[in-house]
Amino acid sequence: MEGKGMNRRFNVVFGLMVFAVLLASHSFAAHGEKQADKKAILIVAFGTTVPEAQKVFDGIDQRVRKEFRNTEIRWGYTSSIVRAKLARQGKVLDSPEVALAKLMDEHYTHVAILSLHTIPGEEFHDLYRNSRLFEQMAGGFKKVAVAPPLLSSHDDMVRVAKAVIGHVPRERKPEETVLLMGHGSEKHPADALYSALNQAFTELDPNVRLATVSGYPSLQDVMPKIAKSKSGKVYLMPFMLVAGDHAMNDMAGDEPDSWKSILKGKGHHCEIVMKGTGEYPEIVDVWMDHLRAVYTGL
């Protein structure tokens, strides 16, 4: 009796082992099956909490969806502060990394990332480095391609400079200064691109200048040139994706350290143009060209 009981237990255990092996074999076989290609586009920006600025993102979103009709489109905001503030308003926005993880979990195989950054600075390189990791992990994407930011070539510089000057208010007179506010990145070598763009502006129009909030050239760097202008009028325009917090406060705010207040203190009259680069179709064209190039290479 004891022998028969042992045989039964052995048969049960053996049967369970065989079942487990067959189940595992089936799982490995399924894992090894060729996965159908699924493409997606991830649009990445710093983010914004300003409702008017959000409309700029909506416009870019519509352009991408119109051209890539059969492709899944997602968004990622790099700023944790912006994401947290939006979350308190009941609006959930993913970081680029979370957005990529979700796409991977949904079995997308190829992702093109549209970077809405202006220069290839620290944020862009973080995005590039982190996104490539999703190719390297087990079960990761077959390919992730990151489109270059706005200013990535001499041709980009010329196109962007012409586009901005083309959107200066028509009533502006040639002797009146146009001062653009860029963000800047004083700790990153890509900050030098702002100086190059500033040169591109002045070659097209000697009274159009670019300064940055946290890089070179600063407002103090361009003030001597503005002081030499034959007109006391200055058009202030943001050179940023959206006319958000920097534009509203650092550029056009009433605080004593805003650009408007500083220029007024020097005797200049300021005209404010609240329009981000994401509102210029010709500039969005540059981003779209970058996206198109990497998408076709997926």
Automatic annotation (TrEMBL):
Secretion signal, residue range per the UniProt entry: 1-29
Catalytic site positions: H183
Name recorded for this polypeptide: Anaerobic cobaltochelatase
Protein keywords: Cobalt, Lyase, Metal-binding, Signal
Keyword Lyase annotated: yes
InterPro entries, per the entry: Anaerobic_Co-chelatase
Domain of life: Bacteria
